[in-house]
Specification:
By secondary structure, the chain is mainly alpha-helical. The protein is built from 21 helices and no strands. Helix 4 runs antiparallel to helix 5 and helix 6 runs parallel beside helix 8. It is globular, with a radius of gyration of 22 Å.
Length: about 450
Amino acid sequence: MNKFCLILLGFFPSLVFASSSTQNLDLTSHWAGYLALIFFVIAYVFVMVEEFTHLRKSKSVILAAGIIWAIIGWVYASNGITHAAEAAVRHNFLEFAELFLFLLVAMTYIESMRERLVFDKLKVWLISRGFSYRQLFWLTGILAFFMSPIADNLTTALVMGAVVMAVGAGNSRFISIGFVNIVVAANAGGAFSPFGDITTLMVWQKGLVDFQQFFVLFVPSAVNYLIPATIMHFAIENEKPKALKESVDIKTGGIPITVLFLITIATAVSFHNYLHLPPAMGMMTGLGYLMIFSYFVKRSEPSEEFSEGFDLFRMVSRAEWDTLLFFFGVIVSVGGLGFMGYLALVSEAMYVELGATYANVLVGILSAIVDNIPVMFAVLTMTPDMSLGQWLLVTLTAGVGGSLLSIGSAAGVALMGQSKGYYTFVSHLKWVWAIAIGYFASIVTHIWINSALFDVPI
């Protein structure tokens, strides 16, 4: 049965957690461990089929988290160990709280910019310029690549996807390939910035990679995007769609809010690098900037709009709560399974027997199937002994590996919903070979140009 669990955990490497310093019971061969593992796998199956069941992904993992810790509590209480499990679950809560507060502030800023029509202005500017299909293919891809490090890959994909849908109306081939291009570009762009993807944010908050060190991944990330984009370029018709004449004006405060978002990012970086405080504290300070500014925005709007105008707390309510609660379920569930003793099992199988490089490449491939967030959380909580170059490698692979399948990243899942059937799992799969070339080329590029970092210990 241990061998079965080892094989299963190879496919679901998220089932690990760095336990607290307490002497824990090894439950990997106990009925409680098997039962908890079954509940988590069932919950995660529901996450993977969300597109078909329309059951929000947070629901099953939150239920699984409660059941897993109830099992742990029962076993520990039966053995007269009453405080070890409590200490471990509190550690899980702290992990989630920092990530939750950081993301909540970022999502509030993004929703505020969306409500002030900042992204609509960009969309209208692009669709009214009369670009050809090939020009739009490259413009949306390059913009996605450079927006993602700041705005996150999900928001970037939705904004650029709206552009492709607007100018490609009736041209199903352009929409399909354009969406593949955006997914690859958004995920690649998010890999070289702590703010571009949840996985890079987790690595940065853990203190394993400094803020400025992420930028050495810029060239490998660019390679990851440019190779499949160049291949797909030749499948796009060199024609010019009919220009659409629209006009959008950014609402009062839209540009200042964008500037405040950049200042908030700088605040979070400064808190972490110079004051040695959690980045989440810097982000919450940035939320204070927005809260004060929102008061003046609301006061400046016409009186007839006052009750319907800019309301910061309405922006908070529009955050991706399903995503935030999903993180809670994953972190707490994974924490429970790791507390049972699966950490050593998976760490030995991946990072000792395979070696760090092969294990990190496998992490990227698995992230296309399972989801990069629990996979990266697993790696972080296993804390294998790796050099800086290897930590950057797993950051790269977890970030861009999700591009291999449409279900492998939030950007891909979101665009499948937005495309009205033009972009599907199968249409993305047609280009997986080109994306895979870019994936492996980016790994080789990183190992080559950043070879000196593979001798730098963490």
